[in-house]
Amino acid sequence: MSCYLRHLKPVLGELGIEPKTKEERKQIDLAIRSIVGKSNTDRCGEVWQEVKVRLQDDMKKRSLLDALKNLA
Questions:
Q1: pTM
Q2: For residues 31 and 67, what is the distance between their CA atoms, to the nearest angstrom?
Q3: Which residues constitute the domain of residue 60?
Q4: CA 26 to CA 28: how far, in whole Å?
Q5: What's the total number of domains in the chain?
Q6: Angle, alpha carbons 7-11-16 (nearest 5°)
Q7: What is d(CA 27, CA 62) in angstroms, rounded to the nearest whole number?
């Protein structure tokens, strides 16, 4: 499972995404991996590194949030 979802809790909460079950967390994890161009075989740390890069750039962050918003 993803090691980084706990770090994204505030961001996901703003979007109204609050995964409660293991299945919901897995669905969010797979969606994030798809958005940042990682596969389900990539290690969690690799995915988190890419997510962190996107969160630090306003345009990339907006793109990530817009893609996540479509999940909600």
A1: 0.88
A2: 9
A3: 9-69
A4: 5
A5: 1
A6: 125
A7: 20
Q: Has residue 4 been placed in a domain?
A: no
Question: What pLDDT, on a 0 to 100 scale, did the predictor assign at position 70?
Answer: 85
| Angle of CA points 19, 3, 9, to nearest 5° | 40
Please indicate, yes or no, if residue 1 is contained in any of the structural domains: no
Q: How far apart are CA 38 and CA 18, in angstroms?
A: 22
Q: What confidence tens digit (pLDDT) does each residue in 26-62 have? A: 999 999 999 999 999 999 999 999 999 999 999 999 9
DSSP string covering 3-55, please?
A: SSTTTTHHHHHHTT----SHHHHHHHHHHHHHHTT--TTS-HHHHHHHHHHHH
Q: Would 61 be classed as within a structural domain?
A: yes
Domain membership flag for residue 47: yes
